Amino acid sequence: MSLSEIKKNTQERMGKSIEALKTNLAKIRTGRAHAGILDHVQVEYYGSLVPVGQVANVSVVDARTLNVQPYEKTLVGPIDKAIRDSDLGLNPSAMGESIRVPMPALTEERRRELTKVVKAEGEDAKVAIRNLRRDANDGAKKLVKDKEISEDDERRMQDEVQKLTDKHVAEIDKIIAQKEAEIMTV
């Protein structure tokens, strides 16, 4: 593996870490309704578990209400049960062929707990970024050891990887700050 391959691979993997963080943060409730909140809720459908979005149309009615319209009438009960049993703390109500999911207002205490969860997610992402930096630096050291590159090239590579790391950590901090502000907004 060459220096450019190591750098490209590290940059791609750091980008994936940022995307994973965004995905994880999207699951954290902010008190406002958004269709993505039910993405990780699984429903039993013909013997296998599938996300709600694959068996129903999830739409936002207003700022605090979701509407779930199953593609099959027989799925109203299972979807209602899956949402109720999820860790989201939602209380759906079946209304004929659709399900309404009101978003309860968050208490101040719950908002503070959620900000702690957001910070923990951010810290996990930073650890992943730092691990990728270490892997890239180890790859460069191996190339020096195998006499494929000079120590000067290794030093340049470490500086570039550090700049990449700093850039991604700053992006994580920005994402976390935005999510905290969103959660604390009443």
Automatic annotation (TrEMBL):
Keywords: Cytoplasm, Protein biosynthesis. SUPFAM superfamilies: Ribosome recycling factor, RRF. The keyword Protein biosynthesis applies. Residues 21-184 form the Ribosome recycling factor domain. Pfam families: RRF. Gene3D superfamilies: 3.30.1360.40, Ribosome-recycling factor. This is Ribosome-recycling factor.
